Amino acid sequence: MTTSFWIELTVLILAAFLGFEVISKVPTLLHTPLMSGTNAIHGIVVVGAIIVAGLPHQDTWIRVVALVAVALGTGNVVGGFVVTDRMLEMFKKRKPGQAEEQNE
To answer: Which residues of 42-75 are buried (b: 16+ CB within 10 A; e: fewer)?
Structure first.
């Protein structure tokens, strides 16, 4: 195996440990907005995967991995916005009769 593979693998493992440590230190109150914003950043993954999949003369397995990245990244983006929307709904003021309708 080449040296660049081992460097990339080391960076991936260190990034995973660092991400776990950073997220585990976030208070519960801030976890939802942080994660919904982080999921929205997956738009960059989607754009990158589309670019890689569209390059000419790619091997089949690279196109398959790019397709999976597009699917998972899109799901994460949509999920991030859905979570953010639900979270923001909690902060909207309700009309006087609306609270009674929801309890029934």
So the answer is: beebbeebeebbeeeeeeeeeeeebeebbeebee
Number of domain units in the chain: 1
Query: Which residue segment(s) compose the domain that 32 sits in?
Result: 27-91
37-70: per-residue pLDDT in tens? 777 677 888 998 899 888 998 888 889 989 998 9
Its pTM stands at: 0.60
- Classify residue 40: in a domain, yes or no: yes
Report how far residue 104's alpha carbon sits from residue 101's, in angstroms, rounded to the nearest whole number.
6
Q: In three state form, how does the secondary structure of 32-85 look?
A: HHHHHHHHHCCHHHHHHHHHHHHCCCCCHHHHHHHHHHHHHHHHHHHHHHHHHH
Measured between alpha carbons, how far is 72 from 76 in angstroms, rounded to an integer? 6
In a domain, 9, yes or no: no
16 falls within a domain: no
Q: Does residue 80 belong to any structural domain of this protein?
A: yes
Which phi and psi angles does 97 have, rounded to 5°? -80, -15
